[in-house]
Amino acid sequence: MQKRLTIPTIHRNGTSQDALLDAVTDAGSALYKALRVLERASPNGRDYYPQGNAALRQAEAEHRSRAERVHSVIKELEQLAEAIADGGHGVAESAEPLAEALGFQGDTP
């Protein structure tokens, strides 16, 4: 189920549709890159084994939680981008246009 977001109204006295879309797309692009960097910071067993198996499992759970939170923001930005691209009317169902615009075809986190 997608979260219902408040979509900006595209109108003459507000921020242009292109500027809104550029801002959301730039933020999404930065977060896609952050996810890739975060992958490199994932826990490695050799750094936790002196503390026992529970420490590694806990570190992995914490890491997954961090990645899921970033992923959640990316999904919201995808919804916003699609709604803005649609002229500010509703929330689109698919996340593909933003992912494709960012060059992440088939690589959506």
What's the total number of strands?
A: 0
Which structural class is indicated by helix and strand composition? mainly alpha
Shape: elongated
Output mean pLDDT: 86
SSE order, one letter for each helix or strand: HHH
The gyration radius over C-alpha positions equals 18 Å
Low-confidence stretches: 105-109
Query: Helix tally?
Result: 3
Domains, number = 1
Distance between the termini: 17 Å
Give the biggest beta sheet: none
Task: Determine the oligomeric state from the structure.
Answer: single chain
- % residues in beta strands: under 5%
Give the helix proportion (percent range).
55-70%
Q: Which short descriptors sum up this protein?
A:
109 residues; mainly alpha
Question: Can you walk through the features of this model?
Answer:
With 109 residues, the protein is mainly alpha-helical. The protein has one domain (17-101). The chain has helices at 17-40, 53-85, 96-101. Helix 1 (17-40) runs antiparallel to helix 2 (53-85). The relative contact order is 0.19. Residues 105-109 have low confidence and may be disordered.
